[in-house]
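Could someone model pyridoxal-5'-phosphate with this protein?
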Amino acid sequence: PAITNHMPTAELQKLDAAHHMHPFTTGDELAQKGARVITRAKGVFLTDSEGVEIIDGMAGLWCVNIGYGRDELAQVAARQMRELPFYNTFFQTTHVPAIALAAKLAELAPGDLNHVFFAGSGSEANDTNIRMVRTYWAMKGQPDKKVIIARKNGYHGSAMGSASLGGMAAMHEQGGLPIPDIHHINQPHWYAEGGDMTPEEFGLARARELEAAIAEIGEDRVAAFIAEPVQGAGGVIIPPETYWPEIQRICDAHDILLIADEVITGFGRTGNWFGAQTFNIRPDIMTIAKGLSSGYAPIGGSIVSDAVAAVIGSGEFNHGYTYSGHPVAAAVALENLRLIEEENILGHVRDVAAPYLQQKWEALTDHPLVGEAKICGMMASLALTPDKATRAQFAAEAGTAGLICREHCFANGVIMRHVGDRMIIAPPLVITPDEIDILIERAVKSLDGCL
Ligand code: PLP
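Reply:
Sure, complex below.
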């Protein structure tokens, strides 16, 4: 029989476990429990194969910024598939969707970030960045300037290069990572690692680890520093206010390229088009993906400064993906950006959704399990703790509190993710105050379930 939405859930789950290998999942566990089958979505709500409605506090994987079910994007995809489903952008050819999207991104991106190298995902874009910054310095006559400094607990993707930039220990344990000439410094995670310092002191101290690393490695060997404006997958870690200005100063002072990985923070998530604007930084390269197409089509890329593009463009950059600038994905992304502008979704975030969510979210610190509630635009985190005064962690052997909380969320019809004992959300940007009330009500019920 055909495998459709109408098949009983248990049968779908059995086939899924038998043939589908899932990312970041233990296959044996999946075979026992079965994955939740999502069948439809509209606005901020998902529906599963049992007909249960779930509010999506994670916008898929931080990407469905515009919300589900936008027919305009389906129309554009269908039109583009009929007109020109594929052509490449290699070897002196181009097409209108890639031209139009690159021009639009140059208009939206801050400063002199006017050039776009397309990829199929954020991981691919960060692999592009590794080769681009090393090639940049080599073409400028400094081939030894190739070390890239990144951060522990940063996330930059799953390909070999991008996972090497990432600072996820569990990922480095598998497959022989990191690749050479990547160096990791500590993250600005005050709640977990700040000790007795104030957040401001700690932000400065952690930023200065970059300067210390440059001194140790040698300025003539360091190509770039890469970081997420707000760490997303690491647990929505919002750096202290002192952090980014000091990082910018250090990159300027030591002639180090700054790569802002905006895969999550781009396209309205922090209330501006890019996190670089929210944190007042001037990157040389920004990584983009996810919200670029609101997840409706796979597409990513690097937005590159005039200065870097001029050097790279002076020779052949031996790099590219079959789907660099894929016409259907590019057309969908362009329409997504048009809708975000036309409907003033950034205005909705700034004036309505983010202030309302902030008020409700910060009130969660009254809950006995919540040690910290942090929010930046439409991305937010809770630190679960057995002792608010000492910011203590739950004993790992008791099973992480976050995992237990996530199970309650699952049962209560809300998607929140857990990273250790941090609960995180990043809902679609179009969420309304009424829908935020539903999200918070279900989140509280899930926290109460952990008591
Ligand atoms: N960079 C950041 C900051 C991300 O959060 C992610 C994905 O979550 C990536 C890069 C990788 O993007 P992709 O999964 O599209 O390869």
